[in-house]
Amino acid sequence: MATMTFYPDAHPESTTVDGFVRTAQYSETWDTIHNAASGDDVQDANALNPCIMIISGPIPGRWQGILRGIFLFNTSTLPAGITITQAVLKLYGWVAVDNLHITPDVNIYSCTPSSNIVLALSDYPNFGTTPLSTPISNWNASGDNEFIINDLSVINKSGITKLATRNACYDVADVEPTWDGALKSSYFGCYFADTTEDNHYKPRLIITYSLGRSWGYILG
Description:
It is a single chain. By secondary structure, this protein is mostly beta strands. The chain has one domain. 5% of the residues lie in helices and 36% in strands. The chain contains two helices and eleven strands; from the N terminus they run E-E-H-E-E-E-E-E-E-E-H-E-E. It has helices at residues 30-34, 168-172; strands at 2-6, 18-22, 41-43, 48-56, 63-74, 83-98, 107-110, 144-148, 160-166, 185-191, 204-210. Strands 1, 2, 3, 4, 5, 6, 7, 8, 9, 10 and 11 form an eleven-stranded antiparallel sheet that branches. A hairpin with a 6-residue loop joins strand 4 (48-56) and strand 5. The two termini are 32 Å apart.
């Protein structure tokens, strides 16, 4: 077995990007912000960002925003003919806040941003809903959060592997949380590729693989 580790590019990006896109309305229904065709805020050049977030509006039953994270990896340098046996996404946490008292979680999903090197507001709806790992609710705010990818077909051996973070229990499930106060937020944050810390803090996709069998012949 062998392993390779991949990271998104820091800004300015050349092949891959990481960051987030979110809605940022002041007072809308859950359906309006959840089903929005476009976001209101996008970031792809910060060292520290939330990777999921839900923000309440100013009055009961109204909401301000949902945030979704994007993590792209150039996995085209994987050797030809390999069999991938495991893929693990590691996100190094720096904060966990639950001011809404909704006990959020986070899981990994596919995404299809319009560009591999810059994020856009129009990327907000471009997220999958099929879970690719096991959700985490006890977010490690000072260390690694490890997601073992359960569908190895999402690893692009000849191009860009595109992964995303979403809150599973409310955002993906499309279940409106219980409103628990005006302009409060619940979110998990992690380090992104633009951190000046060492690579251990950056988003990391670690792929374990085996090489194809080579057959030899004995001539008598």
